[in-house]
Structure of FMN-binding protein:
Amino acid sequence: MRKQLLFPFVLFIASFSLLSLVIPKNVQKKVTKEISKTFEVETFDLEEIKISKDVNDLLVRKIEGEKLFKIVVKNELIGYAYVDKAPSKTDEFDYLILLDKDLIIVKTKVLIYREDYGGEIGSKRWLKQFNGKTSKDKLKYQKDIMAISGATISASSMTIAVNTFLQNLAILHQNKVL
């Protein structure tokens, strides 16, 4: 009897964790729109970049699930996309980092912000600070990246997220993943 109850529970937990690895449709639409606009292309393919366990263990923060992609047009690499979440005061927000084929940030975008306060981190003007950054850059909030009054936690969190990604980028490049 116990085994009969345990199996559906384990199946539910396993299916829930698999679903959390897939980009939700509302986020996917925004990612597609930003890629089209940034790279000035109508059609493209997103190819998930698989990271081996050995390389993932080297990363500052593991990249698991559908988060890192090659952007390909007519079998030619034009850039990379990274989609993830970062914590805000009481929730989290979804963000996108777009890189050119030389691994330089060309755009960052807050895709979905779920708080009443702090949404200013989604402004183009503030996010432009990340453009041009590479894996050689080390970003510090309030020094390299301007602070935002009323969005201290979210702005700091976005800076940490981009900085962590840039550190991971160096490791991925060294290990010939990118």
In short: Confidence is low (pLDDT under 50) at residues 1-21. Residues 23-174 form one domain. The chain is about 35% helix and 20% strand. Helices lie at 2-19, 25-39, 53-56, 124-127, 152-174.
